[in-house]
Amino acid sequence: MASGRLSAILLAAALLSSFVPALADGGDGDDYAIFVSVDETKVSIVSGNLTVAVTRDWPRVLFWHSVDPFSPTFEVGFPKLYLFNDTDADGRFCMSEAVYTVYLDSNRVEWNLSSVSSDYSAELGESVSFSMTTRASAFNDTLDAPPAVESWANVTFWFRVAENPTTVTNPAGSYGLSGKTDVLVDMSIEVTNGTGFDAIALERFLQGGGTTDMFEVLEDGRDGAVSAVLSGRVDESAGDGNFTRPLNITDSAVQSIEFAKDDGTVQAFYSWGSEAVDETGASPGVRLNSSCFTTGAGLILHSVVPLSNGTASISHDSSVGLVEEGFVGAMTDWIREHSLVLGSAAAVAAAAGVAALHLVLRGRRLWRGGAKDKGAK
């Protein structure tokens, strides 16, 4: 009987060790699956070779290559907005024009996270999406003062990772996103308490890691020429004067900044639509003028959304992602790579369990044999 039990246990262990990799692999042989976890600080997604963490205290995307042990961690954050009047009439934002600041961190706003949806469709394949929403107020420069404009606007960020390549469309045209390794980031602003200012400036903070601390500016999108190469180690804001670097207006649907090494190897990117969608329907689209500067720790990017009578309802597309050609070696899919580890761990655990149970059964037989010997005496 003990031999029969042991055979059954060994069979179960063999099935378990072969089944775990299939679960990690998606179970359909395509070597792809999306893993999601949510905790009090972030939403984490593993999509093949891309690992993403979206923080919940303010809209920020941290991402890196899942497999490459030398991959830096890239960051694209949305820390604040500015309300301003375009005093020099150049259509762009400079810090001296800021009147009110709309902070997007948890010290000033409360973010509400939606449910995290995992779906499958013929268009997207496997996908994960969720949103963060808040009602934001505008502040002046007085430290610890109450809001200058209470409940200025409803602000929403929506994030999506999809298995299949997709197309993003805005009023300026369309551009493509790669499947698995790109994250779509949509932002919407619905002004509910108008202020009469000329425009909003959207601020983004970009930071590379390790030796990937160069930024290549592509005014005409990912397929265009590099118009400037900036070092994140240089603080362009030091000193006096207007230190912002204007980007030329483009006919492309998107503009981009790439994260690169000193030798020009590009590993990641941030792209944003060159026009926003006017949700009021008052105009076909809203052309964005952008400018940037480096800080010594990264890069600050501003894009200007003109306002009509101080009110607006706009949505704006952007994306972050990896450039896999920029990573050394032939990288395998994270799921496939780690399913082998999972399978080995399961096999080891199963074997240890079998060995332990075998010892228990043998001990029981020895105990029973000893008990019979005592009874015979």
CATH architecture of the largest domain: Distorted Sandwich
Question: Could you say how many structural domains there are in total?
Answer: 2
Class of the largest domain, according to the CATH hierarchy? Mainly Beta
User: What percent of residues are in strands?
Assistant: 35-45%
- Binned, the helix content reads 10-25%
Main sheet record: 12 strands, antiparallel
Question: First CA to last CA: what distance?
Answer: 27 Å
Quaternary form:
single chain
| Uncertain runs | 1-29, 333-337, 357-368
Structural class: alpha+beta
Gross geometry: globular
Q: What's the helix-strand series?
A: HEEEEEEEEEEEEEEEEEEEEEEEEEH
Q: How confident is the prediction overall: mean pLDDT?
A: 83
For the secondary structure, the number of strands is 25
Total helical segments: 2
CATH fold label of the largest domain: Beta-galactosidase, Chain A, domain 5
Rg estimate, integer Å: 27 Å
Question: Could you walk me through the main structural features you see in this protein, from its secondary elements to its overall organization?
Answer:
With 377 residues, the protein is of the alpha+beta class. It folds into two domains: 2-28 and 333-376; 41-326, Distorted Sandwich (Beta-galactosidase, Chain A, domain 5), CATH 2.70.98. It contains two helices and 25 strands. The chain has helices at 2-24, 334-376; strands at residues 34-38, 42-47, 50-55, 60-65, 74-77, 80-84, 98-103, 112-113, 117-121, 125-138, 149-162, 166-170, 173-177, 182-191, 199-207, 214-218, 228-231, 245-246, 254-260, 266-273, 275-278, 286-287, 289-294, 299-306, 313-322. The strands form three sheets. Strands 8, 9, 10, 11, 14, 16, 17, 19, 20, 21, 22 and 25 form a twelve-stranded antiparallel beta sheet that branches. The radius of gyration is 27 Å and the shape is globular. Residues 1-29, 333-337 and 357-368 have low confidence and may be disordered.
